[in-house]
Amino acid sequence: MNFAKPEYFVNRELSWVDFDDRVLEEARDKNNPLLERVRFLGITQSNLDEFFMVRVASLRKMQAVAYSKPDAAGMSPTTQLAALSAKIHPLVEKQYSTWTRSLLPQLEKVGINLLDYSQLSKKQLSFCSQYFHQVLYPVLTPLAVDVSRPFPFIGNNTLNLALRLVKADVAEKKDRRFAMVQVPDVFPRVVTLPGENQFILLEEVIKPFIGELFTGFKVKEVQTFRVIRDMDFDVAEEDASDLMKEIVHQLAMREHTKVMRLELAAETSKTLRKRLIKALAVHEADVYDIKGPIDLTVLSKLVKAVKNHPELLYQPFKAYTQPALRQTDLFAAIRQQDLFLHHPYDSFDPVVQLIKQAANDPATLAIKMTLYRVSSDSPIIQYLGAAAQNGKQVTVLVELKARFDEENNVHWATELEKKGCHVIYGLVGLKTHCKLLLIVRRESDGIRRYMHMATGNYNDVTARLYTDMGLFTADPKMGVDASNIFNMLSGFSEPDHFAELNIAPLTLRKFLNARFDDEIANAKAGKKALIRMKMNSLSDKQMIEKIYEAAAAGVKVDLIIRGICCLKVGLPGISENVTVHSIVGRFLEHSRIYYFYAGGEEKLYLSSADLMNRNLSRRVELLFPILQPNIKAQIVQIYELMWQDNLKTRVLQADGSYQKVDRRGLAPLDVQAHLVTVANTEQKAATTKPATPPTHFTPMKKPWSPVDDD
């Protein structure tokens, strides 16, 4: 059977827009706390910005060189761009109707006001006048545009004011002038006014006084606008003798790329609009007329500025630290048994503490680690540096090409080298995306390796916001595999076999295909066959074809996919056995789980990789097995709990839409809220009861039973 027909696939970019619409649904969901809804709306904007910076930019490049090869869904770059424009414009309108018709009025009802200048009280007007003249005026720079002063460069994601002016003593028709003023980003965009929770945006403070920057001229019009540029780049590593220098050079050049989107105030005159479109050389389809504040990412700053309204936010919770990981000697705990972490419900602190302990441990000989994204003030960097200074052999792979973290990673690579660490940048042509920590110790019975492997980054900040899974283990076979992986990354080693671990692009795709084939064989033999997977995105054409092959053979396939899904469900004789859920909630679902029934053996793996071509073919990714029975059972139960979620889950339909679960007859279940409740309960109990086996997951009587509110 031919599973490769274009009508069997969904375009990747259009699927991503559907995901952002699901995030927008959270901003519209009245069951979410009000300020969290505001924050979700801001997230949809940052998502859309990155989409234009990377994905639309890529399509525009293809279009520019007349690349016409269709994607798996049969769409050329030009066709995709047209379809995206048709889909994103309504999405933007939905964003702003959500703000103006729903969120803003509800904020006003509880005394939180984002005001226009015309709404200010006398006291607030006086404050704005003083703020402009004493603080803003010395910083603002008027930029005239005429024959001697060309249109200024407009930086990516900067907020700007465009003006039409006329000389005070000359008729408008005979004297038309154009000028620009950048809204300075050295000041908070959300300005706190006199009065509790009273705010105004910085550009709205500037506008009434902007004429003072143009003495002798009348301001006929002033409008806000913003541009999003192509911020993606590819470093030709083969030609770059010094990768770090090339990255720094590319970062400097990236700001001067082409404009991918222009946002301007909806009330902008035709004259000003035409002037901006021409000067910025932007496609008409990528011009967005905005009916509200430009750049809704400002809403996250508004949420942070609000005082005295904790009831409008998610209730805080304290991540749980299981008893085994509260021990002074973490190596002893890991030596005894594998230990599982499920963030953010489990604290990320044991990971940091293990590195700290290794840095000061006389028995530690070497620490090897991959870093893809770390926080701006990472304690892990500090402890790795301390380990090197304490005489440990420290090797750190810092991925300089981690998108939008390039500058941060260049900084940390430099700092680690200063402290005596061996810093490597991975393999030519491949991003290193795996999450792997290896600690080598000399113990009384010989050399022993300790590992931490994870689905998410070594980032102590995002570990509180993303759901990820990690494993501590001292398994000898995995330890040898880990050493071979680091030898591959730092040297010329090319291993073609691993005992327990699997690596992309070497073995991961082949390994997964083999597991699919096992389930297909069982289904054809009349045996139970089941595949359950969780990931961020599914777009790899070959893997989708394999899923179709399995489903057509009778394998039941359950998928939890947060974002992009290029697979179609309900195709007669092809994907009728496939069900796709998407969970969008308080935390960003980021863990990757791959489960195969395997004739009752139940093979379970965690991975850093999604089923995308870039993950399987162009990145170094890690897939590791869960061998310890109690941990395997725990993860299987967590998956089942996620599958039973009926509040934050959307189910993919045969027509490509996502619909919420029909909850008739079901008790409400928000899986993330339930796991927060469990973590809180276990954390409280930990101070009053003796140590118990290392699991914080409390099984429910039935997967669909009510959430325990106690």
3D architecture notes:
Helix content is 36%, strand content 21%. Helix 15 links the parallel strand 19 (530-535) and strand 20. Helix 1 (12-28) packs parallel to helix 3 and helix 14 (508-524) packs parallel to helix 15 (541-552).
User: Could you say which structural class the secondary elements and strand pairing correspond to?
Assistant: alpha/beta
Determine the fraction of residues in helical runs and give it as a percent range.
Answer: 25-40%
Query: Sheet bearing the most strands, described?
Result: 10 strands, mixed
User: What is the 3D form?
Assistant: globular
Instruction: Catalogue the unreliable spans.
Output: 236-241, 690-710
Give me the secondary-structure topology.
Elements: H1 12-28, H2 34-64, H3 77-109, E1 113-114, H4 122-136, E2 142-145, E3 159-167, E4 177-182, E5 190-192, E6 198-201, H5 202-206, E7 217-229, H6 243-254, E8 259-265, H7 270-280, E9 287-290, H8 298-305, H9 330-336, E10 339-343, H10 349-360, E11 364-371, H11 379-389, E12 393-398, H12 406-418, E13 422-424, E14 431-432, E15 435-443, E16 446-454, E17 466-473, H13 476-490, E18 502-504, H14 508-524, E19 530-535, H15 541-552, E20 556-561, E21 578-583, E22 588-589, E23 593-596, E24 603-607, H16 613-617, E25 619-625, H17 629-644, E26 649-652, E27 658-660, H18 671-686
Parallel strand pairs: 1-6, 8-9, 11-12, 12-13, 14-25, 17-22, 19-20, 20-21
Antiparallel strand pairs: 2-4, 3-4, 3-7, 5-6, 7-8, 10-17, 11-15, 15-16, 16-17, 18-25, 19-23, 21-26, 23-24, 24-25, 26-27
Helix pairs in contact: 1-2, 1-3, 2-3, 2-8, 10-11, 14-15
